[in-house]
Amino acid sequence: MRSNYVADIVGAKLAAIHPRVYRQKAPSQRVFPYVVYRIESVGDTYPSEELYVNIDLYEAPMASIRTVETLADSIQAELNHKVIIENNTNLHFELEQRQSVDAQDLIDAYLINLRFVVRAYFI
Question: How many Cα neighbours within 13 Å face the side chain of 92?
């Protein structure tokens, strides 16, 4: 699996939508709102590979959720039901879930998780 390659493509797409995008985890001195994404391998389904792309959007606990909801809408519109073709790679995105976690549950942030199933074809 080419995790770094897929992560670079996803990271570039997200960075075009929002300036604070991090892979795996945010730095300790972060500014809200921000985006953290990670790539997980599901399995080799020849001739493709199936992946999960988890995108977590964080907002300050006392801020309005409108900003982060709008950001989630933008990311969902950019990736859902889309095929990204780049350098002999086809990535087919389908949204599997959109889940919100209230600031009361997380204490230090409000979270929206977008989970995409991605079918990757490396040509």
Answer: 7
Positions in the chain short of pLDDT 70: 1, 103-106
CA distances from 23 to 27, 62, 85, 92 (A): 10, 25, 21, 20
Helix (H) / strand (E) element for 31: namely none
What are the tens digits of pLDDT across the range 70-84? Answer: 999 999 999 999 999
Write out the DSSP string of 64-109.
Answer: -THHHHHHHHHHHHHHTT-EEEETTEEEEEEEEEEEEE-HHHHSS-
The structural domains of the chain, with segments of one domain joined by +, span 3-122
CATH superfamily of domain region 3-122: Phage tail protein-like (3.30.2000.10)
